[in-house]
Every structure is written in structure tokens, then in C-alpha cells.
Specification:
With 411 residues, this protein is mainly α. 52% of the residues lie in helices and 0% in strands. Helix 2 crosses helix 3. The longest helix is centred in the middle third of the chain and has 62 residues.
């Protein structure tokens, strides 16, 4: 059976307040143990030395107070305050960060600064002098001018606040639009992948020698590349390269079917092979900066004025590609194929002469006017070829310089 509550006494309110304070202290005890007391326990020997010095300064201050020595008491007080604040500062910062959220801290600081500024304006405008005990009147002109100043400041603040809100809305809208565009672009790319895959896997698909279907695939590719950004274009190129759709494949002369190489893939034929999709002029002048183009097949493609800055071109095939005026600044050229054969005998492609893949003649990329500034992993053979056939403008951008390497281009 529950006991009845005790009768109210005159000191019941004090008792209730005491209970509330006790409950609050019990509730806050874990916090102090986890935050504030942790900070105190974490004081190092340097902090304890500061606290000891502060205590010594306090003792000196007490002696100065007892002996009425201002010249000793004032420095001792300043030293004691400075040393004590250095010890208390980390604990105070931890407590403020725990109890007051950061946005509220900014609001409190802004409010204090505003109040202090208003007091300063009142003080320096002379309005407070009229309110002194010896003065009966108020300088209404000064107060009116001060009110106009505050009104103008308020209007300007509201205008800036409205501008900030509009700017934030614009940024958020722009981010949402960009995200939606990326989603739409990825859906378009997925649909393209599916369409090309269906053509390839068809019994009479693009791996057979059916020129109309290959032309349709090239048309689809050219159409989708015009509506994608650099990242989307790089995805398309990587997909086509990985699927061997850009590689010249050796085919049966009668049926047009690709020939297996005996290792689980198709045999390549760089001289007479037929590509499923020929990029031709699809990438001329596009911006593929900062793209991942590793192991991509770009041989014989027209890459005039293309931007491949900071691209990863590791193991990419650029033989017989047109790189006139291309930007390859800071690109990774590790194991990039710029030509076939030996670097000393290799030369750029030619409209008249057929390529000789044994000696390397007419198998190289046309790199006149290309920018090779700060390229990475440039081999000595690549450097020799770039200096030989890049022309005077390109030679000045090749890392390591060209030295005695002859300028075979002659211009």
C-alpha cells in the first residue's frame, strides 16, 4: 500500500527547488565527466605549470593588496588572469561547443557585436552626453540622424539578405538541374549500350559483314556523342573499345565473319581489318579533359584540336590518328602507341603511301602543333618521335627537351 504524500510545509518550495537542482546535477554529471572533466584530466605538465604560476601570481597579488602596493598588485593581477585564462580556455571552448550549436554561436556573437556597435554610435554621436545627470535636454537632431543611419543600414541588410537567399536558391536549383542532367545522360547512355548490344548479339548482327547495319551503328554513335559531355563521351569510347567495336578485325573474305584468334577472342588485322564502328570525325575538336581513356582504341581517328589534358591514356592506341593541335598537357602517356615499329624509322600517316607496319613508316600519329607540356610517363621512344615529327611548336613542349634530335618535319 502506497504511503500518503507528506503534508505541505512552509519550506516545501525550497525543498522542491533543491530536488530539482539535485536532479539536474545528477543528469549533467555524465556530461561533465565525459567532456569537461575529460578536458581537465587531459591537462599536461605544461598546463599544470601555468596553473602553478597563476597561483604564485595570486599570492603576490594578495601580498600587494595587504601592503597596498599598486605597482606590484597590477602586474601580478594581469599575470594571474593571463595564466588562468590559458588553462581555462580549452575547457571553456569544449563546453561552449557542447552546449551551444555553432549557428547559435554565430548569432550570439553577431548580436553582441551589434549591441556594442550601437553603444559606440550612441557614445560618439553625442546622444548619450545629453542624457547625463547634469543635462535636462536631449539632442533630438543627433538621435534623428542616428535613426536614419540605422534605417539605411537595415534596408541594406534586408537587401543583402534577399540577395543571399536568391543566390542560394539559384545554387540549389543549378545543383538539382545538374544532377537531373547527369541522371538523364546516364539513362541515354544505358539505352545506347543496350541497343548496340542487341545489334551485336543478333544472329545477323554487326559482327557479320552487313554494311547497312554498321552504318546505322555509326549513325547512332555520332548522334549520341553530340549530346554528351566529356565524361559521357569517355564512357562511350571505353565501351566501344572494350567490346572490340573500334578494332579492325580480320574477317572471312567470303562470309565477312570475324575470325577467332584461338585464344578466346577475335583476331586483329591492322592493315585490312574491318571496324564495326569507325569514329572518323566524331571526336574532332571535343573536350575530353580529365577523362579515363585507358586501353581505348583511337587509331586512325580524326582527333584534330581535341583536348586530352590530364587524361589517363595508359595503353591507348593512337597510331595513325590525327592529333593536329591537340592538347595533351599533363596527360598520362604510359605505354601509349603513337606508331609501330622503330622510333627512328617511324613516320606519320600519309594520304598517298600505304603504312608499313614492319618498319613503322607511315604508321605514326600526326602530332604537328600538339601540346605535350608536363605529360607523364613519356618514354624515350615516344620523346624521340614527338621531337622528330611534332614541328618547332611541339618540340618546345616535350618534357626533357629535344636536344640533338633532328626535326624531320622541317618546320
Amino acid at each position: 500500500m502506497n504511503n500518503p504524500p507528506p503534508p505541505a510545509s512552509p519550506n516545501s518550495d525550497d525543498a522542491l527547488n533543491s530536488d530539482i537542482k539535485e536532479d539536474a546535477s545528477l543528469a549533467l554529471a555524465p556530461l561533465y565527466r565525459s567532456k569537461t572533466l575529460t578536458s581537465l584530466n587531459g591537462l599536461g605538465s605544461g598546463a599544470w605549470s601555468l596553473l602553478t604560476s597563476a597561483a604564485a601570481a595570486a599570492v603576490v597579488l594578495g601580498v600587494a593588496l595587504f601592503l597596498h602596493l599598486p605597482w606590484l598588485g597590477i602586474p601580478a593581477a594581469l599575470v594571474a588572469i593571463a595564466l588562468a585564462i590559458r588553462v581555462l580556455w580549452p575547457v571553456l571552448v569544449a563546453a561552449v561547443n557542447e552546449w551551444i550549436p555553432r549557428p547559435l554561436q554565430m548569432i550570439i556573437a553577431a548580436g553582441a557585436i551589434t549591441l556594442f556597435s550601437i553603444i559606440g554610435l550612441l557614445r560618439f554621436s553625442g546622444a548619450t552626453d545629453q542624457l547625463a545627470p547634469g543635462n535636462r535636454g536631449i539632442n533630438w537632431e543627433a538621435l534623428s540622424a542616428l535613426g536614419e543611419v540605422f534605417g539605411a543600414v537595415g534596408q541594406i541588410s534586408v537587401a543583402f539578405l534577399a540577395l543571399y537567399v536568391a543566390w542560394r536558391q539559384y545554387v540549389i536549383s543549378k545543383d538539382l538541374t545538374s544532377q537531373q542532367n547527369r541522371i538523364t545522360q546516364q539513362q541515354t547512355i544505358d539505352a545506347y549500350f543496350q541497343g548496340i548490344s542487341d545489334l551485336i548479339l543478333n544472329d545477323e548482327g554487326l559482327l557479320e559483314d552487313w554494311p547497312p547495319e554498321r552504318a546505322i551503328a555509326e549513325g547512332r554513335t555520332a548522334s549520341i556523342l553530340t549530346g554528351l559531355d566529356g565524361e559521357g563521351k569517355a564512357k562511350i569510347i571505353r565501351f566501344l573499345s572494350s567490346a572490340k567495336l573500334l578494332t579492325p578485325l580480320k574477317r572471312d573474305r567470303r562470309l565477312g565473319r570475324p575470325i577467332f584468334d584461338g585464344l578466346g577472342g577475335y583476331e586483329e588485322d591492322v592493315e585490312y581489318g574491318v571496324r564495326v564502328i569507325d569514329l572518323t570525325n566524331m571526336l574532332a575538336g571535343v573536350d575530353l579533359s580529365n577523362s579515363d581513356l585507358r586501353s581505348t582504341e583511337l587509331s586512325e581517328a580524326n582527333l584534330t584540336n581535341i583536348s586530352l589534358a590530364a587524361c589517363d591514356l595508359t595503353r591507348a592506341n593512337l597510331s595513325r590518328a590525327l592529333l593536329l593541335g591537340a592538347n595533351l598537357k599533363q596527360a598520362d602517356l604510359s605505354r601509349v602507341c603513337l606508331f609501330h615499329g622503330d622510333a627512328e624509322n617511324a613516320s606519320p600517316r600519309d594520304r598517298i603511301n600505304a603504312p608499313n607496319y614492319s618498319t613503322g613508316a607511315y604508321t605514326g600519329a600526326v602530332i604537328e602543333g600538339a601540346d605535350f607540356s608536363q605529360v607523364k610517363n613519356l618514354s624515350e621512344e615516344q620523346r624521340y618521335y614527338c621531337c622528330s615529327w611534332g614541328g618547332s611548336k611541339t618540340r618546345g613542349t616535350v618534357p626533357g627537351g629535344c636536344g640533338d634530335i633532328p626535326n624531320k618535319l622541317g618546320r
